[in-house]
Every structure is written in structure tokens, then in C-alpha cells.
Input
Amino acid sequence: MANPWLSVPLADYEGHMSSAEVQQSGALSDLFGEALAFRRPESVAVLGIAGGNGLDHIEANVTKRVVGLDVNPRYLDAVRQRYSRLPGLELYCVDLAETVVHLPPVQLVHAALAFEHAGVGRCLESALSLVAPGGALSAVVQLPSELEEPVGPSRFPFIQNLKSHFSLIDRTWLCKTLEERRFRPTYQARRSLPAGKGFWMGIFAQA
Ligand SMILES: C[S@@+](CC[C@H](N)C(=O)[O-])C[C@H]1O[C@@H](n2cnc3c(N)ncnc32)[C@H](O)[C@@H]1O
Output
């Protein structure tokens, strides 16, 4: 079965994420900014980069290599157009659920709502193998809501196609798994969202 993200126009995705009832774009962008400010990485990789949300936070004199990965080539085209000014921009079209990527590693790997969609098998392996010695992984996961399903109602019909491809990630499991892989927690942050939802970000440094 084709990945449902291939059928979601970027305008619909971004319209949904920034709508008043969802308000996730701004929160995700802020959290990426926080991770960049905390680590000040020379190089960063973003798994599931979509249209480049949050790349505005990159300081070109600090972060000189920016790697973006996504399954949707049209999203990557948009990132290329919007952020051609970024130094060392590398974009790769890859299905992270299927392929473990082998690229020169980076100081910070940022995975925000990536594991929910691409799973914690090969995608997590890619995330960990992309972290350079002394580097870190920042993971943003969606917290469960008692009020609404993980993929809530939307006036953008394509969003409903994603429901079957979304699994909440157990934060406790993630922390334990990363600890076993010798990544220690160094920072955490939360954001509340409408409909009782929320995001949690953990930054894990390679021990
Ligand atoms: C919820 S969005 C990510 C949000 C973004 N990281 C942010 O901070 O705003 C999920 C992204 O992951 C991508 N994606 C979904 N499944 C994927 C897969 N199997 N491999 C690679 N990218 C995938 C989608 O195309 C989409 O761009």
C-alpha cells in the first residue's frame, strides 16, 4: 500500500496543522527552536521535514549543514524553494519506515512526530545512526488526549487518510529504549495543545 502521505498536498497539511483547532505548527516550530538553542549544533538532520517547519530558527553562522528527509518529494521541493539560502542544505526522499539511511552523521537529529508516522523500527535506527559521536537526538512525541482521537477532525479531507498510519509513541518506552542505546536525557519540554493534546520533547545526548 502506498504511503498515505504521498496523497496529502502540502497546503492541506500545513493548513490543518496551523488551523485554530489544531495549532500544532507553531508548537513544533518552537520546540525545534528550543532544541537548536540548547544544542547549537554545527549540523542537524530533520526526519519527516514536511515543508521545513521551524527551519527559520537555524542560525547560518552556527549550523552549517542541514539534512532533511521525507517520503514526499513534493514536500522536499517546497523546502528546497523556501530555504535555498540555508548553508549546506541536503534533502533526501526516503521512506524511513522501510530504509535505514546511511549518511555522514550530524550533531543533532530532530524527529518531531516522525516515529508516530514512520514507526520505531528502521526510523529509530536511522535516527540513532545519524547521530555523530557526542551528538544528540531530540524527539517530539504527541501525548495522548482523553478528549479526542490522535488524528482529530479536520476540514481538510486528506488528513483522515493518515489515521491508519499513526501510532502514539509511549514516552516511557522511548526513554528506556534510548537509555539502553546509551543516550541519556539532558532536556525536556512540553507544549499544551487544543482538545487536551500536547507535545513532549526529550533531548538525548549520546553517552
Ligand atoms: C507530522 S509531519 C512532521 C512534522 C514536522 N517534523 C514538524 O516539526 O513540523 C510528518 C512528516 O513525516 C513524513 N513521513 C511520514 N511517513 C514517513 C516515512 N515513512 N518516511 C519518511 N517520511 C515520512 C510526512 O511526509 C510528513 O512530512
The chain has a mean pLDDT of 94.
